[in-house]
Design a protein that fits this description.
The protein folds into three domains: about 160 residues, FAD/NAD(P)-binding domain (3-Layer(bba) Sandwich), CATH 3.50.50; about 120 residues, no CATH class; about 90 residues, Polyamine Oxidase, Chain A, domain 2 (Alpha-Beta Complex), CATH 3.90.660.10. The protein is about 30% helix and about 20% strand. It is built from 13 helices and 20 strands. The longest helix has 23 residues. The chain is α/β, with parallel strands linked by helices and about 475 residues long. Bound molecules: flavin-adenine dinucleotide. Flavin-adenine dinucleotide binds next to helix 1, strand 15, strand 19 and helix 12.
């Protein structure tokens, strides 16, 4: 039996650990915190003692590997999928985007887009033209745009500043954690192709019915060690022999999956090995982008819908966290300019915005609030970013039994929960091959491209070709 150590109990490490167990390895999952989940985890609120999410996490119907991972954890029923995406404009007026049940993509969204009054008629037509162009590109075409900014693509396709602000920004800034114009056109187009254009289930908004931490409570992995910090890796020539824990204990392994973020991954590889292993050569080029999340509790109900994409800022998305609508969670992605703003000033601006969105809020008092700014939330998916993202698999001459997992590795996805799970599955497939374990294909296929999308030219690449 082969012994594998997985370092890091975020989604990438958990996905690797669960799939490695299924492949027949003896797995030890080491996590420095007292709970699993990493960035997609929960913490205990020091003020009220309740379990709060690090930040609201949203998945979409096109996140096929994350959905598969929740199935393996036995928690699929705790994820609620919504068929309507609620937008609110600056004056609080609601604009709903919904798909007609039973209709294939992309025509399922046609009726609601036609009536989407946040956009002028001209903007709706212009957006439809851009969607046609994105379908025409297919998946192969979007890959050729990896070095092009989406701003350039939007200009080339005559998308106005007002249309970008009202429709592209609410979707893309949160999906990519980057300004729409600054992101790579490849990743921006992927969001639309996968979520809106290929399959009618792609856009469904998935929200957990419980704190994120509860999803991981019954992880099918026998040896999970929480509160166990790895302080370093042990090497013998081009082989990792084990890990050293903070207390000095050494754990030996046949293979190691390093599933921390890229900042830790860089620290543990000695320079002579890093220079021979191309995966570590460009990690310092990845730029981290912050996300701000705010938990708000009011003394009376404010919000009726489960979520709202906000066309005017500063908050970009709001989520209702309780049945009555008193507890809300707001998010600002690509929140660079908020990092140094005093908390009181942030709150003042957020409450002002909520007053303008919901009339009921004018009488309400804010009874509790908590702002969490994750400075290193995700890497920026700028043009050319994939050149710096490492493979999970050791290159020839690299550390041959050290595998990487993490949203930053090369997954074909931006930094998301789906990307993290993909990386874990890919790492397991490579470990299984190198140790002669059961060869199981863990990576789940994308949703199939439906016939109208194919007619409009949306041709997918074969499974795994985008990696
Ligand atoms: C604020 C915020 C909001 C987000 N919103 C969304 C969203 O709505 N939808 C979405 O899909 N994605 C979202 N993301 C992105 C998503 O959370 C990440 O892409 C994903 O969780 C990354 O998982 P990971 O396993 O790669 O890394 P991590 O979650 O960072 O996991 C790494 C783990 O390694 C552990 N570790 C580090 N060092 C050590 C050590 N020395 N010893 C042992 N363990 C160690 C860490 O404690 C951590 O648990 C968001 C991210 C943030 C920060």
């Amino acid at each position: 039996m082969s012994r594998v150590i997985v370092i890091g109990g975020g989604l990438a490490g958990m996905a690797a650990a669960v799939s490695l167990e299924a492949a027949g390895a003896i797995v030890t999952l080491l996590e420095s915190r007292r709970a699993l989940g990493g960035r997609a985890g929960s913490f205990e609120d020091p003020q009220g003692g309740e379990e709060l999410d690090n930040c609201q996490h949203v998945l979409l119907g096109c996140c096929t590997n994350l959905i598969d991972f929740y199935r393996r954890l036995g928690v699929s029923s705790l994820i609620r999928f919504e068929r309507t995406v609620y937008f609110r404009d600056g004056s609080g007026r609601r604009h709903d985007l919904w798909g007609v049940e039973g209709w294939p993509a992309p025509i399922h969204l046609g009726p609601s887009l036609a009536g989407f009054e946040a956009l002028t008629w001209g903007e709706r037509i212009s957006f439809s033209r851009a969607m046609l162009a994105m379908m025409n590109l297919g998946h192969a075409g979007r890959d050729t745009l990896a070095e092009v900014s989406f701003g350039q693509w939007l200009d080339d396709h005559h998308q106005s500043a007002s249309l970008i602000k009202k429709f592209y920004d609410p979707i893309l800034i949160s999906a990519l954690n980057e300004e729409s114009r600054r992101a790579s056109a490849r990743y921006a187009i992927q969001v639309f192709q996968d979520a809106m254009l290929a399959n009618a289930d792609g856009y469904l908004v998935g929200l957990p019915n419980c704190p994120l931490g509860q999803l991981y409570e019954k992880i099918p992995c026998r040896d999970v060690r929480l509160g166990t910090r790895v302080s370093g890796l042990r090497f013998n020539d081009h082989r990792a022999t084990g890990v050293e824990l903070q207390g000095g204990e050494i754990l030996e392994a046949d293979a190691i999956v390093l599933a921390t973020n890229y900042h830790s991954a860089m620290r543990w590889i000695p320079p002579e090995l890093a220079s021979a292993d191309s995966r570590f050569g460009s990690l310092d080029k990845l730029e981290s982008v912050p996300i701000l999340g705010v938990h708000l509790r009011f003394d009376r109900p404010i919000m009726t819908e489960s979520h709202a994409a906000l066309i005017e800022g500063p908050l970009q998305w709001l989520f209702r966290k309780d049945a009555e609508g008193r507890v809300l969670h707001g998010v600002i992605s690509a929140a660079r300019e908020w990092v140094n703003v005093p908390k009181e000033e942030c709150l003042r601006q957020f409450v002002k915005q909520i007053h303008s969105l919901f009339p009921a809020a004018l009488q309400a008092n804010l009874v509790r609030s908590q702002i969490v700014i994750e400075k290193r939330a995700t890497f920026s998916p700028v043009p050319g970013v994939d050149r710096w993202r490492p493979s999970q698999i050791p290159p020839p001459g690299g550390v041959h039994n050290l595998f990487l997992a993490g949203d930053y590795t090369r997954t074909g996805w931006p930094a998301t929960m789906e990307g993290a799970v993909r990386s874990g599955y890919l790492a397991t497939e490579a470990v299984a091959e190198s140790l002669g374990l059961k060869q199981i294909e863990f990576l789940v296929k994308d949703l199939p491209v439906q016939w109208p999308a194919r007619v409009f030219g949306l041709k997918p690449l074969p499974h795994r070709m985008e990696l």
